[in-house]
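During the reporting period, our protein records have gained a structure token line. One record among many is quoted in full directly below:
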Amino acid sequence: MRRPAGFTILEIIAVLLLMSIVAATVFGRSVTTSNFDLNSATDQLRNHLRFAQADAMKRSDAVWGIKSYGSEYWLFRGTTPDNAANQVRLPGVQYSGTGSRVSETQLKAGVSDFTVFFDRIGKPYTAYTNASANTPLASQMTITLSAGGDNRTITVTPETGLIR
């Protein structure tokens, strides 16, 4: 008498089919577009900070920086970030009008308020009037982005200006 020692092909196909349905359902509910939007917004702001730092080092005639206030952030050149004449459009941003500010709606995330200046060697400052009247970053600066109940952070390291 022959004894079966395994599963039939129909049993294996049925189990694999059920497992794939359960996996697709669980994965579809756990990954939301707000996670992708927040990761994308974090990368975009991090790259804009690096762009400001690179511009300050390439064009050593002025300090450059990024300021975030309220529901917007912007790139600026010089020591007065609120002066519209000093605000510069960021690359890779689709602006709706003539302004040069990125809104939370464009970014799809909220950003904490901050101001960071970079000098000609890429060193970060929290305030900068001129080369002798300035406030270097004393401790690590943490910038928080939030969307859909999740948060991401960007850090700027004092002295070196490393942006992570």
Remarks:
- The chain has one domain: 33-156.
- The beta strands are 64-69, 72-77, 87-88, 101-103, 110-111, 114-118, 124-128, 134-136, 141-147, 150-156.
- Helices lie at 9-30, 33-58, 104-107.
- The longest helix spans residues 33-58.
